[in-house]
Design a protein that fits this description.
Bound molecules: 6-O-phosphono-beta-D-fructofuranose
Radius of gyration: 22 Å
Largest sheet: 7 strands, mixed
Oligomer: single chain
Structural class: alpha/beta
CATH topology of the largest domain: Rossmann fold
Shape: globular
Number of domains: 2
Number of helices: 13
Strand order of the largest sheet: 3-2-1-4-5-10-11
Number of strands: 13
Length: about 425
């Protein structure tokens, strides 16, 4: 068998509870399939451009470390939100990247990320083909937002949905416990930007032991503030405690985000995405003025993407599987592709992987179909819940030390690239 070169892997975009399980999958399969070294980009492509990388064999020493990595939230290697310039707009950036890849004898470049990160795979694979380079570029899907095109779902979504479902149940119990002769309203704000998959997951809370949220508003449909207030007031006539779930990205019919009506920041990231947050607090304030009731705004914020203590086993396993599938695709000569997950059956839940042209995926957003919302667009349907439910199944308990989950931590003094060592504190 011909000697294989090296692999480099990076993590990009908003982290998830299982993004490191994909990293573990890439590492394990790469070693098993005879690649020489596996390097990790420290803070993705942005770090790589500054020669920040690490030899993963200096970080992962045993099967136990692999298990710990699978249970460690956030990006072990560090992430970034960095947009590469258009090809040939800034040729030097690309030449610099290929110079580093050649220096490290990289045969395969793997990027674990969402739709913006797939833009990096698309541009690098296009540049490689245009300039006759032989390296292969493959994408591994990741995002709590579940908004990647063509894949049935994305690793990270199932665990975030499990956390959101469980937290919604707990919040509803808390609210009901105190709602005695005093009406109260709770507004829960969920991430997901322009896609309502995560917000819809609050409906998982509805069961024989929980009423579930009263109203659910997704960003796919324009939000009518007056109709919302009227609806909440109607509900308050019938019950003492009203719980509403809203997406951070709900927008008015004129295109303004609801969070812009409050005191949100004007900041945007490299891909032009607005910094969200503040929707629940704006709506809760409106409802206090309108109803005089006690209101509480709860922003789940980063908790929903880092809660590895409540990760879904299905999600952890699939995240690992897609990492391995990228190595297999590279071995079979593919480039400019992303691994996708196919749902084989719901009961028992089974899935497998295939690969798809990254040009069809990069920068695209897959939204919740309108038919998976009710007529008034203030709740999701049974089909929505049936789609999500299999993805939150099973647990993989953290390794508990001193009463808290133990995590694997990047040791930057241990095998990191030259510049990384120099900047080490
Ligand atoms: O893309 C993932 C995501 O978690 C979105 O749901 C959210 O809008 C965004 O990242 C938040 O990013 P940041 O933590 O950088 O504000």
């Amino acid at each position: 068998m011909a000697k294989k070169g090296n692999i480099i892997v990076g993590q990009s975009g908003g982290p998830t509870a299982v993004i490191n399980s994909s990293l573990a999958g890439v590492y394990k399969y790469a070693i098993d399939r005879g690649y020489d070294k596996v390097y990790g980009m420290v803070h993705g492509i942005q770090g790589l451009l500054e020669e920040q990388y690490v030899d993963l064999s200096t970080q992962i020493h045993s099967e136990l470390d692999i298990e710990l990595l699978k249970r460690t939230p956030s990006a072990f290697l560090g992430s970034c939100r960095y947009k590469l310039p258009e090809i040939f707009e800034e040729k030097e950036t690309y030449e610099k990247i290929f110079e580093i890849l050649n220096k490290l004898d990289i045969e395969v470049f793997i990027y674990i990320g969402g739709n913006d990160s797939m833009d990096t795979i698309k541009k690098l694979s296009d540049y490689a083909i245009l300039t006759g380079r032989t390296q292969k570029f493959l994408g591994v899907p990741k995002t709590i937002d579940n908004d990647l095109a063509l894949t049935d779902h994305t690793p990270g979504f199932g665990s975030a949905a499990k956390y959101i479902g469980a937290t919604t149940k707990e919040v509803i119990r808390d609210a009901q416990g105190l709602a005695y002769r005093k009406k109260q309203i709770t507004v829960l704000e969920i991430m997901g930007r322009n896609a309502g998959w995560l917000t819809g997951a609050t409906a998982l809370a509805k069961d024989e032991d929980c009423d579930g949220p009263d109203l659910i508003y997704l960003p796919e449909v324009p939000f009518d503030l007056d109709a919302f207030k009227t609806k909440v007031k109607e509900l308050l006539e019938k019950k003492d405690c009203v719980v509403v779930a809203v997406s951070e990205g709900i927008k008015l019919a004129d295109g303004r985000y609801v969070c812009e009506l409050g005191s949100s920041s004007d900041a945007v990231d490299a891909f032009g995405h607005k910094q969200m947050g503040g929707t629940a607090s704006f709506l809760a304030n409106c409802l206090t003025t309108e109803t005089g009731c006690k209101t509480r705004a709860i922003e789940l914020s980063t908790l929903q993407r880092s809660a590895s203590h409540l990760a879904s086993r299905v999600d952890i396993d699939e995240a690992f599987m897609v990492g391995g599938a990228a190595i297999k695709a590279a071995d079979e000569g593919d480039t400019g592709k992303m691994v996708i997950i196919n749902r084989v059956s719901d009961d028992p839940y089974l899935s497998d992987t295939s690969i798809f042209d990254v040009h069809r995926i990069a920068n695209e957003e897959r939204l919740v179909p309108r038919e998976w919302m009710n007529k008034e667009a203030n709740y999701v349907t049974k089909e929505f819940v049936d789609y999500v439910r299999p993805l939150i199944q099973g647990d993989l308990l953290p390794v508990m030390v001193g009463g808290l989950p133990k995590h694997l931590v990047l040791n930057r003094g241990n095998g990191a690239g030259r510049k990384a060592r120099r900047t080490m504190k």
